[in-house]
Design brief:
alpha+beta; 5-stranded antiparallel sheet; 4-stranded antiparallel sheet; 17 strands; 19% strand
Length: 591
């Protein structure tokens, strides 16, 4: 099959033997022969070696310069590669181990790979890896699913993983997106090996694209879930941290016409273990209509601390603060946390704080603050009634009865001057109680049932019996006295409010303010109100609880801030509830 070549050898050169089989034959020129094969002068100083190889009947002549290994030459011709055998019938040549790429070769390969990837030449970039098809599919998928407008890839030098056996270089990715001002930037690493043909190439793995990318994971731009509106206080401050608002804030609905818009982000998915997809870069955040509540974070903090202190012994408590000039609810707190929101949805007898409305009804019936209304030790309706303060005080006026919270005086004068149902009528028409309030979240309205007899009427005049109220309602009573006008309390300005059918007469409002001021400075509220300056007024309430400890109630105002507090089992009004209310009044309404 092979034609035998025979050459004349110079003296001192032995003749080369024929190879072991007839398929491959090497015929080397004599180093001293001229180019025409004859004896004579030597052309050039470099010996030339001709290798004749046949494969499937085709001959090829390869020139090897210097010490270039026969292993590489044979592979190049016969298409033998490290991953599989050559053509059937070809000679088998032992593979020499390859040295790892040098640092200089790795840097050159990195530049070429990053340049191809950054210009979008996926085929060229993949061809510079040790797994071209896998790399091509991965790079194409990444480019398609991320959809960056431009991709800038910059080398950052040797990586911590760099070793002599496998050089590693870091690089930075900067992806820019259409219409997005900020770029997505991150760092990754390339490591280098030699390909089957000896070239330095990138060792392909998913982390080349992104350090967190691994088999089974994907990176793509995806839509984000719609944002949930997070209401803020009146100054735009967050409210999420307040315990009493955790159940309230989720009930706040976006304003009418407000719509949420989904955002977009580069997302890593498929992390396994039920893990949520990870946002690698937010292109556009989801948006939701902003809802600004009337609450004040500073006063809310004060209210939270006040009810927490008064409920330390297990006594449920609540407090609401209102701005009289607007009706805005500035704070609402209750304890224990996680339980029933008694501040706005509770219903219980408010005790002597109801005497504010009974006084308004008496004043409108012709009784003045200076009218003598004796405070007897006991009275009957025919039920027997008594006072917290023992003794008879026959010279007390209405203002005295109010400031000392005399039950018998209010019962006697109420039964004398007021028609059945008069208390509920004044409460509804001038104080807005019993109307259907919409404050921004569900709340409970006050109920003042018409009395069926004198005993029921007597109980209502002093805030007991079947009357049901809460801190929200009684804070509104204090606010109405301070401003002279009922303004339905709200948590947000955009809700539709109800208006009271009537209006508190100006002279009645004036007299009530004077009576509440006297109570704050000389009466039962003087201890908790001590030290508070400016326009102040207060009314205490102590409610009998069927043999258990009395419930403590307190309503008050200071300037443009009205507060109501109640502590179940707290005892006298000036103690537990009074202390809580005073804490918030001291904080003040700073606007």
């Amino acid at each position: 099959m092979f034609e035998e070549h025979r050459d004349n050898r110079h003296e001192g050169h032995q003749e080369y033997d024929q190879l072991a089989d007839d398929d491959v034959e090497y015929d080397l020129d004599d180093p001293d022969r001229g180019e025409d094969g004859g004896g004579g002068g030597r052309r050039g100083s470099t010996a030339r070696r001709v290798v004749m190889v046949t494969a499937g009947g085709v001959f090829a002549a390869l020139l090897a310069v210097g010490g270039y290994g026969a292993y590489n030459v044979l592979n190049a011709v016969t298409d033998n590669d490290p991953s599989g055998g050559g053509h059937q019938g070809s000679a088998t040549v032992a593979k020499a181990p390859q040295d790892p790429p040098t640092a200089e070769q790795a840097e050159a390969a990195a530049r070429e790979f990053l340049a191809a990837w950054s210009r979008g030449d996926i085929a060229a970039a993949a061809g510079l890896t040790d797994h071209p098809e896998t790399a091509r599919a991965a790079l194409a998928t990444f480019n398609e699913q991320v959809g960056a407008r431009s991709l800038a890839l910059t080398g950052t030098g040797r990586a911590p993983a760099d070793t002599p056996s496998e050089p590693a270089l870091g690089f930075r990715v900067k992806a820019e997106f259409e219409g997005i001002p900020d770029a997505w930037e991150y760092d990754s690493v390339l490591s280098f090996v030699r390909s089957q043909d000896g070239r330095p190439v990138v060792r392909w793995k998913p982390s080349v694209i992104h350090p967190q990318l691994a088999p089974g994971r994907t990176i793509a731009v995806k839509a984000l879930p719609n944002a949930v509106s997070k209401p803020t206080d009146r100054k735009g401050r967050p409210l999420d941290a307040f315990p009493s608002l955790r159940a309230v804030l989720p009930q706040i609905t976006p304003p009418e016409g407000g719509t949420a818009a989904p955002g977009r982000a580069v997302v890593l998915s498929g992390a396994g273990g039920g893990a949520e997809p990870e946002q690698l870069f937010v292109l556009t955040p989801p948006t939701a209509p902003k809802v600004r509540l009337t609450l004040d974070a500073d006063l809310q903090q004060a209210a939270e601390e006040a009810v927490k202190q008064q409920s330390a012994n297990g006594n449920p408590a609540s407090l609401v603060a209102i701005e009289p000039s607007t009706g805005f609810i500035l704070a609402t707190a209750y304890a224990p946390q996680g339980g029933f929101n008694r501040a706005i949805a509770g219903g219980q007898a408010p005790g002597s704080t109801m005497k504010v409305i009974t006084s308004a009804a008496l004043l409108e019936a012709g009784v003045s603050p200076d009218t003598v209304v004796p405070c007897k030790a006991t009275t009957n309706s025919p039920r027997a009634w008594h006072n917290d303060e023992p003794g008879d005080f026959p010279s007390y006026t209405l203002a005295d009865d109010f400031s000392h919270s005399c039950n018998t005086g209010f019962i006697d004068k109420g039964l004398e001057k007021l028609q059945p149902g008069a208390l509920g009528s004044v409460a509804r028409e001038q104080f807005g109680l019993g109307l259907e309030w919409h404050i921004g979240v569900p709340s409970r309205d006050v109920t003042i049932p018409p009395p069926g007899n004198k005993d029921e009427a007597a109980a209502e005049y002093i805030g007991q019996g079947r009357i049901q109220a809460n801190s929200l309602a009684m804070a509104s009573v204090a606010a109405t006295v301070q401003s002279g006008t009922f303004r339905q309390p709200v948590l947000r300005e955009d809700v539709k409010r109800v208006a009271a059918p009537g209006k508190l007469p100006a002279d009645v409002a004036r007299d009530l303010r004077a009576m509440m001021a006297k109570t704050a400075t000389q009466g039962t509220a003087r201890t908790p109100m001590a030290g508070l300056s400016g326009q102040i007024g207060a009314k205490t309430g102590t409610v009998e609880a069927g043999g258990q400890a009395n419930n403590s109630w307190f309503i008050a105002y200071r300037g443009d801030l009205a507060v109501a507090a109640e502590v179940e089992g707290g005892g006298h009004g000036f103690s537990a509830a009074g202390v809580a209310a005073a804490q918030v009044l001291k904080a003040g309404n700073k606007g």
